[in-house]
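Input chain follows. Return structure tokens only.
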Amino acid sequence: MLTLTLSAGFFFAAPVLAQTSTLAAFGEAAGFSTSATIPVIVARLIRTVISITGVIAVLLIIFGGFKFMTAAGDPTKIQSAKRVITNAVIVCPLYCF
């Protein structure tokens, strides 16, 4: 019965029609264009690097917090977790400037 129900979904499913826009139009809508000047391209590149750095810093802080929570009172593990969090907090502003 389960097989019949699942197979019916394949036979009676409505087709999905994707948008017919071109890749260039999609790039323009997303804020990327081939007609941008060099300073605009550099500014976008810098903005992207800063964004990626921020994401990495947040992930490192979460990782350090996880290490801290799972240290189970072991002083070396706690020190290692504090070091990860401290380094993430110190290095993130340095990358931004």
